[in-house]
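Record type: monomer structure entry
Structure origin: computed from sequence
Chain ID: A
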Amino acid sequence: MNLSGKTAVVTGAASGIGQATAETLAEAGARVFLGDIARERGEAAAAAIRAKGKQATYVHVDVTDDASLAAFAEAVRAQAGVPDIIVNGAGWGQTKPFWETTPEFWDKVINLNFVGPMKLVKVFLPGMIERKSGKIVNISSDAGRVGSLGESVYSGAKGGLIAFTKALARETARYGINVNCVCPGPTDTPLLEAVPEKIREAFRSAIPFRRFAKPGEIADAVLFFASARSEYITGQVLSVSGGLTMAG
């Protein structure tokens, strides 16, 4: 899958799935803008891609802050115009029973996993509509499809992102824009490392392949949706979970 001549924006690109996605899109030939709140890790991730002879630029962004998003969009447009590909990879959660969570926790989870991705799309979408082309890939979670133990708020936010994906796909198809969603199952990332070992082991034993996904395996699914191979696909939700959640 060749993305030569394409420009991609990836948030959450300083680590985990976002970083793997940035690397994969760059390897396919795209010029990638890595957005993340973690400046040092983001700079290092972009530098590692450039060291392989690929195109990558880190731009600081906090997807929960309107001013930061506006500055991010301005920086990307100034250097490369309207991106061809948007990947919403930023996300965060914490495993705890719902009754132990607080409204402040809800706000953080919902803003980062649902509202932030919507806002990121909003700042670039008018340009995509004017151009009549674009690929938007939202990274949700299987937690948003089927629910997840100890992640009620996170599941709700990711479920909202799935519904947003489908509705936006209907609205933007007339402009030649594809909007799809990748739903990882448990993946070997810093976020998973923070989950209690007892729950991690329960996840692992329930996965038919008996292992967690590698970030690059999620990135491969994103690459498909970002490429010309998915021209006639929109509004779809792809689970990459090693069979943990199978559709009936």
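Annotation 1: The beta strands are 7-11, 31-36, 56-60, 85-88, 134-139, 177-184, 237-240.
Annotation 2: Residues 80 and 200 are 41 Å apart (CA to CA).
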